[in-house]
């Protein structure tokens, strides 16, 4: 009789534990129903930044893509077009890292394809780099597993898909700030500042 009671108590307890687990899982699902996944939030910001950067790159007249400041401490800085190519090349490299793919061979050492010199071609390269970042953002999972190292990243040994896409966004904002300065030095109001 004692063994029967112990078995019955265990069965009742296990049933209650299972009910509690199921209840907790249902509550989590209900609470998360209105939330965005990490990949969705990240992809939103990729799109937000893409809009600003593509608009800024498009706003610079084609004949000013070779512009680089010369007054002040600007020796050796990139031209406007080189800024955009560098930004796009880094997007491609970090997106490839997030996806576990080799970076495009034409990304070079973050400089982008040497053959790209015309505004239209550089803009197309920039747009393609954001398509790659969108794919990388969509691949982010909530497990946030470690992925292969990308030599240009400070995340060596602990990089995740989310980390690489965030790094690309931080890097892009840095260059967006530089592009805004170059635009203003050429009398162009950045699209994001118009109408304010």
What does this structure look like?
With 196 residues, the protein is mainly α. 60% of the residues lie in helices and 0% in strands. The longest helix has 31 residues, at 2-32.
Record the SSE blueprint:
Layout: H1 2-32, H2 38-59, H3 80-99, H4 119-138, H5 161-185
Summarize the structure.
The protein has 196 residues and is mainly alpha-helical. The chain has helices at residues 2-32, 38-59, 80-99, 119-138, 161-185. Helix 3 packs parallel to helix 4 (119-138).
Mean pLDDT: 82
Instruction: Give the low-confidence spans.
Output: 1-28
Structural class by sheet pairing and helices: mainly alpha
The CATH class is identified as Mainly Alpha
Give the topology string: H per helix, E per strand.
Answer: HHHHH
What CATH calls the topology is: Four Helix Bundle (Hemerythrin (Met), subunit A)
Number of domains: 1
CATH architectural name: Up-down Bundle
Largest sheet: none
Secondary structure: number of strands: 0
Beta-strand percentage range: under 5%
- Through-space gap between termini: 83 Å
Question: Percent range for helical residues?
Answer: 55-70%
Number of helices: 5
From the spread of the alpha carbons, the general shape counts as globular
At the fourth level of CATH, the homologous superfamily is: dinb family like domain
Q: Keywords for this structure?
A:
mainly alpha; Four Helix Bundle (Hemerythrin (Met), subunit A); 5 helices; globular
């Amino acid at each position: 009789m004692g063994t029967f009671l112990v078995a019955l108590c265990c069965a009742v307890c296990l049933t209650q534990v299972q009910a509690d687990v199921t209840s907790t899982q249902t509550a989590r699902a209900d609470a998360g129903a209105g939330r965005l996944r990490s990949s969705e939030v990240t992809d939103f910001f990729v799109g937000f930044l893409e809009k600003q950067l593509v608009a800024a790159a498009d706003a610079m007249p084609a004949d000013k893509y070779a512009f680089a400041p010369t007054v002040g401490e600007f020796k050796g800085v990139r031209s406007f077009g080189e800024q955009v190519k560098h930004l796009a090349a880094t997007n491609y490299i970090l997106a490839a890292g997030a996806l576990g793919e080799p970076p495009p061979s034409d990304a070079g050492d973050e400089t982008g394809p040497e053959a790209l010199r015309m505004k239209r071609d550089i803009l197309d390269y920039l747009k393609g780099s954001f398509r790659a970042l969108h794919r990388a953002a969509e691949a982010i999972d909530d497990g946030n597993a470690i992925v292969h190292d990308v030599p240009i990243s400070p995340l060596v040994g602990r990089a995740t898909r989310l980390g690489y896409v965030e790094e690309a966004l931080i890097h892009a904002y840095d260059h967006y700030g530089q592009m805004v300065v170059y635009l203003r030095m050429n009398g162009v109001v950045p699209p994001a500042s118009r109408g304010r």
